[in-house]
Amino acid sequence: MRLSTSNGDACRQILERLREEREVLKQRRKQGELLTWCKVDFADAADAGPPILLGHLSADAASGQYRLESEEGSLVVCLSETEAKRAVNETVAVLEYSGVLEWFDGGGVKGAAWERFYVIPKRVKTLFRKSNQEKVDVKEKEGEDWWTVLNCSGPSLSDTGSSLRVSLLARRSNDVTAKRFNFPVSELFGHRSLPAGSKFKLQAGAVRNKVAEVDVSVTAEGRRDMDAVSAYELGELGSAPEGRSLITVEAEVAERWFEQNKFNDSFDRSKSKSCTLDQDIGILPRSTVCHVKLKQKGNFGDPPAGDTVSFYLSNTSRNNTLGVLMPLGMVVGSVLRLGNVRQVVSKKGHPYLVPTDLTNVSYLGDGTAGTWTKVPPREALLGDLYRSR
């Protein structure tokens, strides 16, 4: 690859290649098969692919996405948890990556169609680190209102549809009672979400709950909270709690498609609101569900039908019709961590997973390349935290 002098030119090359791939896939698809995404890998070859991407990695509060910023504009990137911790807020060179193009036809809802493009870095090199990298310890002073995060969602649509928010459960030190909070992503000091075990301080005297400070380092107290969370693999779901208990599952995406009018017979359409955010960030209307077939991570090839588990990504609120934000990286071959989901068993005895308003979908890596970060299973959290809201 050659060095980039313009990320804008590189983006145009990647997008052109993805659209070519989409046309090829359309010619090859089976009758009745609906295409919703395509992906092209750009390796570090001497005379192939677009140039290296350069820029400053940051978290964008408006879209809830990571972006590679340069003088020519910004590029959306899907980062694994490992890369995000290492490279966000740094100046980097993205040496190898995959380009992904996703699209949605609107599902019959006027103005709901969108197309989005992003890259998934495979090899990132930090070029310039920030000055003053030494961590400043946050000291809790007497009288300050500090809370420890137990569970936190990923970015989701606010009730007004004009911004993104996160929902979380947290408790004060030495307090067993959890409290529910909703914070705009723009108030999280550059974080898209707050990891379990981290802390935040509420602003004193504010009319509503507002974050005054964030400490994402995990204390010993926070570590105990994290150790209570289980990362189940698909083969372990038989021992995972069902019903309203929250669980975390790690698996690889085997298939993905959109379905209409599923689980949507209970909300009041008279309360429908318009979302004012850009649809291109990946908003599915309330009438659409993203059906994801999951398989055991690390298993190559197509799994037998009985070895997959369905995850239905949809809006979890009964009272609004704004829809749901599609996480980046939810394409075939990706290994995902589905945090704070519920396991339900159908009448036929088949388990499936549904989101809650605390669900956080994290991209871990490419399962076909074995780049995902393995987290060993931990002791299950049997307490029903979801009921404490």
What does this structure look like?
This protein is mainly β. The protein has three domains: 7-128, OB fold (Dihydrolipoamide Acetyltransferase, E2P), CATH 2.40.50; 146-227; 231-388, Nucleic acid-binding proteins (OB fold (Dihydrolipoamide Acetyltransferase, E2P), Beta Barrel), CATH 2.40.50. Helix content is 10%, strand content 37%. The termini are far apart.
Provide keyphrases for this structure.
389 residues; mainly beta; OB fold (Dihydrolipoamide Acetyltransferase, E2P); 3 domains; six-stranded antiparallel sheet; globular; disordered N terminus; disordered C terminus
Shape call? globular
Helix content: under 10%
Mean pLDDT: 78
How does the major sheet shape up? 6 strands, antiparallel
User: What is the N-to-C succession of helices and strands?
Assistant: HEEEEHEEEEEEEEHEEEEEEEEE
Structural class: mainly beta
| Content of β-strand | 35-45%
Return residue spans where pLDDT drops below 50 for at least 5 consecutive residues: 1-5, 131-136, 267-272, 371-389
Domain count: 3
CATH homologous superfamily descriptor of the largest domain = Nucleic acid-binding proteins
What is the name of the CATH topology of the largest domain? Answer: OB fold (Dihydrolipoamide Acetyltransferase, E2P)
CATH architecture descriptor of the largest domain: Beta Barrel
Number of helices: 3
What's the CATH class label of the largest domain? Mainly Beta
Alpha-carbon distance between the termini? 51 Å
Radius of gyration: 21 Å
Strand elements, count: 21
